[in-house]
Design goal:
Layout (H helix, E strand, L loop, with lengths): L3 H4 L13 H18 L12 H13 L13 E3 L7 E13 L5 E11 L3 E3 L1 H12 L2 E2 L1 H16 L3 E11 L2 E10 L1
Parallel strand pairs: 2-5
Antiparallel strand pairs: 1-4, 2-3, 3-6, 6-7
Helix pairs in contact: 2-3, 4-5
């Protein structure tokens, strides 16, 4: 049986970071150009001739930037000088990710709740953490556990995480909900 820690890992090859971002962009550009050619698109048309480069940059620098650990945000804490002892909640964090099975968009809202252990996390840091883990091919269960684990690593074992995700797949809508409380 795999440990929970192993379930937090995305299926990333050990050599995934041997190429720099520019090399990855060049390779993806060439492959995407071939895909467009196979689909029958006219790459000499000025409206799409630069599309392979734009798509490659979007993949590496934006929608899949969370694959690279160098992009992981640093989570800073602030002293809870007001001694607030109730649950702290950050609601309605918009999440954009891609299903790792079909590479279709996952669009949803994330809610994170935790109780301070004497320190609080800046609201922008929570959002950045969610975006980091979302910006990689994902499955909902792993994404949920990765965010919970990271919050727990920062504030202790007091994190509660609830996620509502709407997945658009093959022109059908599938609504899924998960609630995980530690």
């Amino acid at each position: 049986m795999k440990s929970i820690k192993n379930h937090l890992l995305n299926p990333i090859r050990k050599d995934a970071f041997e190429l720099n971002d520019n090399q990855k962009i060049d390779l993806i550009q060439n492959h995407f150009k071939e895909i467009m050619h196979i689909l029958g698109l006219d790459l000499t048309d000025d409206s799409i001739q630069n599309t392979p480069r734009r798509v490659a940059k979007m993949y590496v620098e934006e929608i899949f930037s969370g694959i690279n650990p160098k992009n992981k945000p640093i989570i800073t804490l602030f002293e809870n000088k007001y001694q607030y002892e109730e649950m702290l909640i950050e609601k309605d964090i918009t999440l954009y990710s891609y299903c790792e099975h079909h590479f279709v968009p996952i669009i949803g809202k994330v809610h994170i709740t935790y109780i301070s252990n004497g320190a609080v996390i800046g609201l922008s840091k929570i959002n950045r953490l969610v975006q980091f883990y979302a910006k990689r091919p994902q499955i909902q269960e792993r994404l949920t556990n990765q965010i919970i684990q990271q919050i727990n690593d920062v504030v202790g074992k007091w994190a509660t995480f609830a996620e509502e995700t709407k997945v658009n797949k093959d022109f059908m809508e599938q609504i899924s909900k998960s609630h995980l409380i530690l």
